[in-house]
């Protein structure tokens, strides 16, 4: 139940914010917005304010903004979408992905500031039985000061050092009370579930809250880095340098559920990454996605005339069919994957 509710909440917020981008941009340029809807299917609640119908529908997965004239039914009204200048239509379409990028940055700022980031210290909180650290004599409360003679400044340095010495005996120096002790730890053991080498210690964590200015700077920086990584990965996929790893709606829902159970930090961090990915995926020139509309507006600019509405609708219809087929395929892949794990 937590997985379902978390998935609906996260996905609903991401889509609602995306559609708000289109909505606000269209309103700012004076275009008619016939409807702003959260969800699909039968209407549960609706209210008309001005020219726009605001509705909440039964299926809480997704949403949409209906701009007058966007379906191809054109008129001479200058405030309808097709009759607005090309640059305005371009910005209205682009505003959806931009809002998701902004949301990602805001979520990172919240995580780094009010929620706080869990940071590993060098103090051992727990030693797991039957692992190398336990056999060597390490105890909870020991503070690691060096590994193989190299000073250790933080918990991440401990993890990196253990990974670096994956197949070697490790000399770990600790402070225990007022004593300085050195232990020889047998080679780390590989844990397939965590996909890394372990010596069997759990480090104590503290929650670090950044100041508003530092959180804003770090949040924007993290969003920029994530965007760069996305484009880099896309290039590697296209050139065959990176394996294409599928994760469909079920897989994402499972991950969201795991993050929700782990705590607000993990849920907000995942939601930020999903928001940025939704934005960047949407700008791909694939029919139905915002990227295809931006591409067709570019073609319109080159040709100096708009594409025939029926032909454009047919392109989007075919693209929608392929998109549904793709979603069905990755969903089947998810089901097979989790049945295999089970």
Helix vs. strand class:
alpha+beta
* Unreliable stretches covering 5 or more consecutive residues: none
Order of helices and strands: HEEHEHEEHEEEEEHHHHH
What strand line-up does the widest sheet have? 5-4-6-7
What's the rounded overall pLDDT mean?
A: 85
Rough outline:
elongated
Describe this structure in words.
By secondary structure, the protein is α+β, with helices and mostly antiparallel strands. It has two domains: 2-115 and 229-341, no CATH class; 120-208, Pdz3 Domain (Roll). It is built from nine helices and ten strands. The protein has helices spanning 2-28, 86-115, 132-136, 155-164, 212-238, 249-262, 264-282, 290-303, 309-341, and strands spanning 33-49, 52-67, 117-127, 143-147, 150-151, 170-176, 179-185, 189-191, 196-198, 201-208. Strands 5-4-6-7 form a four-stranded antiparallel β-sheet. A hairpin with a 4-residue loop joins strand 8 and strand 9 (196-198). The longest helix has 33 residues, at 309-341. The chain starts with a helix and ends with a helix. The mean pLDDT is 85.
Primary descriptors:
342 residues; alpha+beta; Pdz3 Domain; 4-stranded antiparallel beta sheet; 9 helices; 10 strands; elongated
Record the SSE blueprint.
Layout: H1 2-28, E1 33-49, E2 52-67, H2 86-115, E3 117-127, H3 132-136, E4 143-147, E5 150-151, H4 155-164, E6 170-176, E7 179-185, E8 189-191, E9 196-198, E10 201-208, H5 212-238, H6 249-262, H7 264-282, H8 290-303, H9 309-341
Antiparallel strand pairs: 1-2, 3-10, 4-5, 4-6, 6-7, 8-9
Helix pairs in contact: 1-2, 1-6, 1-7, 2-5, 2-7, 2-8, 5-7, 6-7
């Amino acid at each position: 139940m937590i997985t379902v509710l978390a998935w609906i909440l996260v996905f609903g917020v991401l889509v609602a914010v995306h559609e708000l981008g289109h909505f606000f941009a269209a309103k700012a340029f004076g275009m008619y917005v016939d409807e702003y809807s959260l969800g699909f299917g039968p209407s549960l609640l609706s209210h008309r304010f001005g020219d726009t119908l605001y509705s909440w529908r039964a299926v809480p997965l997704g949403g949409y903004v209906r701009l007058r004239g966007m379906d191809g039914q054109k008129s001479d009204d200058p405030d309808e979408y097709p009759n607005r200048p090309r640059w305005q239509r371009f910005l209205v379409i682009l505003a959806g992905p931009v809002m998701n990028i902004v949301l990602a940055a805001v979520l990172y700022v919240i995580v780094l500031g009010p929620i706080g980031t869990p940071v590993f210290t060098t103090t051992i909180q727990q030693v797991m039985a039957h692992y190398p650290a336990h056999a060597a004599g390490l105890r909870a409360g020991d503070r690691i000061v060096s590994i193989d003679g190299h000073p250790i400044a933080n918990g991440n340095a401990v993890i990196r050092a253990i990974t670096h010495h994956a197949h070697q005996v490790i000399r770990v120096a600790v402070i225990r009370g007022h004593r300085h002790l050195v232990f020889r730890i047998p080679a780390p053991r590989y844990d397939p579930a965590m996909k890394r080498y372990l010596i069997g210690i759990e480090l104590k964590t503290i929650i670090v809250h950044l100041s508003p200015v530092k959180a804003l700077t770090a949040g924007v920086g993290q969003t920029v880095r994530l965007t760069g990584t996305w484009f880099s990965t896309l290039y590697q996929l296209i050139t065959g340098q990176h394996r294409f790893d599928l994760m469909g709606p079920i897989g994402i829902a499972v991950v969201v559920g795991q993050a929700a159970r782990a705590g607000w930090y993990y849920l907000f961090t995942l939601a930020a990454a999903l928001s940025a990915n939704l934005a960047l995926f949407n700008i791909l020139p694939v029919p139905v996605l915002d990227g295809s509309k931006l591409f067709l507006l570019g073609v319109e600019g080159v040709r100096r005339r708009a594409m025939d509405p029926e032909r454009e609708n047919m392109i989007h219809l075919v693209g929608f069919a392929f998109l549904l087929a793709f979603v069905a395929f990755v969903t089947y892949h998810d089901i097979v994957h989790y049945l295999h794990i089970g």
